[in-house]
Amino acid sequence: MNSLDLNRRQFLLTAAKATVAVGVLAPKRIGAQAQPAPSQSVRLGGPSFAHADDPEQLARAHRQLGYRAAYCPNVAVKDTDRIRALAEAFAKHDVVIAEVGRWVNLLDADPEKRRKNLEFVTEGLALAEAIGARCCVDIAGSFNPKVWYGPHPDNLSQKFFDAAVENARKIIDAVKPKRTKFCYEMMGWALPDSPDAYLKLIKAVDRPAFAVHLDPCNLINSPQRFYRNTDLLNECFDKLGPWIVSCHAKDLAWEVEMNIHFREVRPGLGELDYATYLKRLAALPHQPPLMLEHLGSAAEYAQAAQHIRSVGQRLGIQFD
Fold it and tell me: What are phi and psi of 292, to 5 degrees?
């Protein structure tokens, strides 16, 4: 997650019930006979660390790492020629552009900053539509006056929910996307903070272009969710599966001290049930990308990718 000057890695490294919505929106887990055949394939992606501007070289750099998904390369929404070249090169090499990240506070207390942030995210959705990314994603925001993504009691309020709905509608209605989606990333201290909360948002926003970005580690904010993360993963896919368009891959470890402290770690060094995560993701026919993030070096990304592939391969899941 990035602020205007803070990239997403720095962000997270430094750092009314929805039963009606469930009844209306949440698909029941499909029985084995009725369930579509699993794709048995996952589009794994991450940063390429390529020192290149050429679209062809960038696309090849991802494939050389075994990736079939990528974060959106740096390009201005008005640079139509480069957008076209990037889209063609990545499609040629079967690399999906997973997401355009627009990490700003849509609920900033300063009205002018809030207006500019809304414009920035709207532009991000327009870029996602132009380049063919699966989504544009931001957090819903925060009322914290000091830390743009920080906790605040009103982040769990009806006021927050209503503002998140209004902003999502404004962004989507301004762009009117036909092939991409707008998403809020789940958070542990702001809405949407659960699958049911996300279902409630989907119903309230009431736009086909509003979808789900899944980051299960962000939802693990209690010992119950930490120890029962398999149940949490299944709940996410049971209730939100058809709307999931992109996912993040990281892991959590419990650092024992006098209060609860979960720390992000490289996949394989924590307790997230990657076997369940990959099985449920591979079963989705629309193949949402799984994007590695928040690691400090190319070597760490390679280790993380190797762990995920090794878990998947034991389950018969392909990545190439």
Answer: -70, 145
pLDDT value at 215 more than 60: yes
**0.70 surpassed by pTM:** yes
Q: How far apart are CA 62 and CA 85, in angstroms?
A: 16
CA distance 236 to 139: 18
Percent of the chain with pLDDT over 70: 88
Where do the domains of the chain lie, and which CATH numbers do they carry? Answer: 8-26+96-314 (3.20.20.150)
Query: What is the overall mean pLDDT for the chain?
Result: 91
Q: 264 near 294, Cβ under 8 Å?
A: yes
SS (H, E, C) 117-165: HHHHHHHHHHHHHHHCCCEEEECCCCCCCCCCCCCCHHHHCHHHHHHHH
Mean pLDDT calculated for residue range 62-68:
98
**Distance between CA atoms of 67 and 61, rounded to whole angstroms?**
9
Residue 314 CB neighbour total at 10 angstroms: 10
Number of neighbouring beta carbons within 10 Å of residue 23: 9
Q: In sequence order, what DSSP letters do the residues of 213-282 get, joined into one string?
A: EE-HHHH--SHHHHHTHHHHHHHHHHHHGGGEEEEEE-EEEE--SSS--EEEE-TTSS---HHHHHHHHH
pLDDT tens for each residue of 14-33: 333 333 333 334 343 333 33
DSSP 2: -
